[in-house]
Amino acid sequence: SPALIGCFIVDRQYFQEIGLLDEGMEVYGGENVELGIRVWQCGGSVEVLPCSRIAHIERAHKPYTEDLTAHVRRNALRVAEVWMDEFKSHVYMAWNIPQEDSGIDIGDITARKALRKQLQCKTFRWYLVSVYPEMRMYSDIIAYGVLQNSLKTDLCLDQGPDTENVPIMYICHGMTPQNVYYTSTQQIQVGILSPTVDDDDNRCLVDVNSRPRLIECSYAKAKRMKLHWQFSQGGPIQNRKSKRCLELQENSDMEFGFQLVLQKCSGQHWSITNVLRSLAS
């Protein structure tokens, strides 16, 4: 198994040799994933024993906050910085936070990096190729975050209702439905990123008969749909084929007074939160 849950059987001496659990993590959340990655990259393996008998006795009163989000996020970034090499950007993208100056103190990781060097561990790319080839790689993403129009900066591009494929503008909250990813192939992907090749594909913004729609990227590509957009930070978003721009239009019938339209470019400007590499228009 590429990773493990929080209960496992391990040889005590081996566990000590590979560094036990990371004492720099807070509360819990992420230590099991870190251990799985470390074991594989450092020459070990994780096996699932389906006939095992285990029990979990939960304490009656937990001495920590019920909302562990901040701790899990911090722990995840700690794992990324020690073990994930050039793929650490995936964790920052998943949490929708900037890779530089995130404002999150992950603690001192000097000892954990030294442990990795001492154990002569393999790269995270090796782990992805050899242990978890089903995991999708998103090295082509060059910008991510929420996408805002200068005409109405308190609204963000949103995937809209799950049952529909119509993107909307909604009050900015920065949660998963408003996650936007711009790729080096000029695709705009909206919503959750598909974790593995076996899951549903990501959804791309497409010009469908002059209307903005969210279509599975692989389907849109196979059907040669209009899914490529020219975009530079602070500039317009223009479809490469139709030459129409994604813009806001006032509409009193919409919940927040604006709707997304594709029309002749009028000079509206868009900005995305985090840029990893230059956005060439």
Automatic annotation (TrEMBL):
Domain Ricin B lectin stretches: 144-273
Domain of life: Eukaryota
Entry's Gene Ontology BP terms: protein O-linked glycosylation
GO annotations of cellular component type: Golgi membrane
Cofactor(s) this protein requires: Mn(2+)
Recorded topology in the membrane: Single-pass type II membrane protein
Subcellular location: Golgi apparatus membrane
InterPro entries: Nucleotide-diphossugar_trans, Ricin_B-like_lectins, Ricin_B_lectin
Pathway connected to this protein: Protein modification; protein glycosylation
Entry-linked PROSITE patterns: RICIN_B_LECTIN
A GO molecular-function descriptor: carbohydrate binding
Keywords: Disulfide bond, Glycoprotein, Glycosyltransferase, Golgi apparatus, Lectin, Manganese, Membrane, Metal-binding, Signal-anchor, Transferase, Transmembrane, Transmembrane helix
EC number of this enzyme: 2.4.1.41
Entry's family note: Belongs to the glycosyltransferase 2 family. GalNAc-T subfamily.
Name of this chain's protein: polypeptide N-acetylgalactosaminyltransferase
